[in-house]
Fold this sequence. Notes:
It is a single chain. About 45% of the residues lie in helices and about 15% in strands. The chain contains six helices and four strands. It has a four-stranded parallel beta sheet, covered by helices on one side. Strand 1 (about 55-60), helix 4 (about 65-75) and strand 2 (about 80-85) form a beta-alpha-beta unit. The longest helix has 14 residues, at about 35-50. It is globular. The termini are far apart.
Amino acid sequence: MAHAHSSPAEHDHAEHGHGGDPGLAELLDLDGVVLRDYWADALTWLRRAAAHLPRARLLDLGAGSGVGTIALAQRFAGADVIAVDQDEAMLEQIRAKALDLGLAPRVRTVCADLDAGLPDVEPVDVSWASMSLHHLADPDRLLRDVFAAT
């Protein structure tokens, strides 16, 4: 059933919120499979644009199940990646994936509601938000905060 929103302020976050829904993690991982070529192209472009950074610090906003976080860590060898999401269960999945792939020393998770503002993280070189900004009541504010913090 479709649900219409007349303004971002009326956006029902319970509808899109993670809330520990195990089916959502599976759906997000499936998105990663379906969009693999698109994300590979975007990550290749991003890697070229950030080639001048000796050891990049990357921020994944609304990381979900960690498809982007893991891809960033794999594409940017040696980079530190900070995954931010409001769902601790999703962040645990990211930590488990990073551990399984040997990326755990470079992947950190932060549990935060991005509608409440950008969490206090170290300055970053690159911010990534894939399919997450539409969940926010005021994505423009978050992007301004991210830009001001870099």
